Amino acid sequence: MAAWIMVLALTFSSSIDNLGVGISYGIRNIKISHLSNFIISIICFLFSVVGIYFGLWLSKILPGIMPVVIGSFLLVIIGLRIILLAIPRKVPVQETDGEVASAEINGLTKNIGKSGEIGFAESIFLGIGLSANALTNGLGAGLFGLNPIAICIAAAVGSFITVWGGVALGRKIAHVRIGKFTLGQFGTLISGTLLLVIAFAAFFD
Fold it and tell me: Which of 2, 52, 56, 78 shows the greatest Cβ crowding within 10 Å of its Cβ?
């Protein structure tokens, strides 16, 4: 698989959760200002930097094709986990991986209520909650030897665009479904499947 295609695919995969969270905030009519969104994207950038440089370091000390094997295995595990989170269940659960991240920090964002807009502290917590995929995807990208600058910038830009787009969409498509899946679940399913495709393509390249 061409390096630029992998960069775009990893960016899409790490950003799809941001879209889901943006939609969930839009549904609740909570605003995420450009400044708050910028803070979130910077945190995503930093997490990507940590992940990819750790991956590059591992790729130098691991022998032969081990970096590719480990990187592929890591993405398969992450992809399967994301797919399982997207599958509808009979019991009430958070509907998307992004919504899980949103729920985890929900207790830290209770003071949003009156203003209807997240503040500085909430932006930081939300950025950290959304950057787990950027960290692990960065680690995988580092093991594959991809360009670190391209990955980190793409992750930050992707984060900004998807959060902004998610909030805008959330106000209009609160209950859109694709088959048995909500829009957020369907996006999460695509994210997990894409990671599996990247993993197998890198392994058999």
Answer: 52
